[in-house]
UniProtKB/TrEMBL annotation:
This is Amino acid ABC transporter permease. PROSITE patterns: ABC_TM1. CDD domains: TM_PBP2 (cd06261). Residues 67-258 form the ABC transmembrane type-1 domain. PANTHER family: AMINO ACID ABC TRANSPORTER PERMEASE, MEMBRANE COMPONENT OF AMINO ACID ABC TRANSPORTER. The keyword Membrane applies. Belongs to the binding-protein-dependent transport system permease family. Coiled coil: none annotated. It holds the Pfam family BPD_transp_1.
Amino acid sequence: MSSSVLYDVPGPKAIVRNRIIGVVVVLVVLSIAAWVIWRLFDTGQFTAQKWELFTYTAIWMRFLEATLNTLAAFASAAVGAIILGFVLALGRLSDHAWIRVPVSWIVEVLRAIPVLIFMMLLYYGLPVVGVKMAPYFAVVIALVAYNGSVLAEVIRAGVESLPRGQKEAGYAIGLRKSGVMRLVLLPQAIRAMMPVIVAQLVVTLKDTALGFIITYPELLYLVKLLGSNAQFGSPLIPAAMVGGSIYVALCLALSYVAYLLEKRTRRSPRAQRGEARPIQDLTTTQLIATQEEPDRIAARRGFGKYDGSAGMGH
């Protein structure tokens, strides 16, 4: 009988027990779903009056506008969070304590502040000191600050999870720290942490819904607005179903784009040539070639890597 590394292969009694547990779980889930649907029917959530609102073209145009506002905030926040994450991660990985310690405190503070409180401080707090901020910028800045700090820890953890020999081999063949980080460590860390990065971007997309608290006209703001329409029976549940479906579609689309990006990266010629491969699979020429040009420029100017010590020698 074959065995698994993680657990022993179940015997006949264990197989029967697992099947019974699986059937019971499925029946419980189906029962809960049936009860929820019954309650929706019983409370009139599927009546024509509550869904009549969604037969108007103007309503769907407003959903389109709200979706575009959501995507606009997400796109700016995602780009800003990734850039901030890289900057903070490099600071956390610095060998200099005067850089590493302050950046570590900044990361911890930004991670500790809830996104909603950050948005409210920017939108409602700054006017107290005479600074007014539009809801869009309050949403984007809050999302960049929080998710950037989280991504910084993700990237740092990815770099530190790599074998120590990767860094040491890079130094051994003459690479500077910037070259080791750029050519050896970061490509491997990003590829290893890609699922976590995508998951955090999905969180960023969903957190844009918090903008309705500060009147940013995104999807949840529109859902709340339509749900309070008494003329159509206050269709909050139908509006939430439509808005929730749009959120699910956006998150699935983002996950699919990330999957295509990862698949393309694995098949790209640069990856096959060794940009993100372990350092033992690279040649010295491939790694040092990208650093030769700055040395040539320095040589033309009459000084080089050891210009300080050379000057002292003369």
